[in-house]
């Protein structure tokens, strides 16, 4: 399963248009706090509640077997959302298991071959020792025959027969040694078969793990708790690797984005205290903190030549609602709701009464 976090801040034209709209409706915001607007040290801007959006996608291509999640449904982390068809993967898994069994059998046969070759090696060494003993006896016999032949105690024929038997014993000894070398080569071959079989077993086990991981990933699960926003595909459709199936929003990561002019944006500090007032509940202030301040102006005149033009630059600010607060009021703070964000740019500034009463804590 692939889960992709969507970044809503990539489109510069979108934010430029939003900045223009923010400037156009600034006079409406002043109506909330009276004709004079908020007191000094507090800046404000209009925005909309947003949440982190996550695309739930198939890691490998295939057919969607079913989608168990429904649009608008709240889901827990790890909950199954959809299933991909796994018939082909299951067939590959059976094939890999068969290769694993074959490799284990081959390894057992190779181990038996090594044991047999080692036994043959011991027998061949015994034969060499026997042939060496026979050669030693034949050499001693030839030595005695040569002494007796010098004294004419034995015939020349007897001496030649003893010498022939000695050469035969030497040849038998050399043949036994060659047999030992052949058996040793057989042992090396049998051990190489063990290594080859173990490599085949390791490859089969790796294939099983890979295929099993693909099967596990065929169940698309929620990477975190949230709410299903919409379905991208339907059961029966074939999607490519990385193809989106549904979209999830993380209700524990909720924020509002708005714009402030240069003078006010320059006084905003990360972590500064903020309030969010939604249009659906104008009498309730939602506590928040500044979590982002753009270092690039979102709306810039074609040429910036004067101090006034520099003050007209708009900077994007984001205030985030605390996750523990969202956990208690998830049904109240909903993505998509419009409202106004107020930021305390002066730590000594006091919140006006309407931003202190009805505080959602």
Which key features would you list for this structure?
Helix Hairpins, rod-shaped, alpha+beta, six-stranded antiparallel β-barrel
Description:
There is one protein chain. With 361 residues, the chain is α+β, with helices and mostly antiparallel strands. The chain folds into two domains: 2-85 and 225-355, Efflux pump adaptor protein, beta barrel domain (Elongation Factor Tu (Ef-tu), domain 3), CATH 2.40.30; 88-217, Helix Hairpins (Orthogonal Bundle), CATH 1.10.287. It is built from seven helices and 13 strands. A six-stranded antiparallel barrel has the order 2-9-12-11-10-13. A hairpin with a 2-residue loop joins strand 10 (273-278) and strand 11. Helix 3 (87-150) packs antiparallel against helix 4 (156-217). The chain is rod-shaped, with a radius of gyration of 43 Å. The two termini are 37 Å apart.
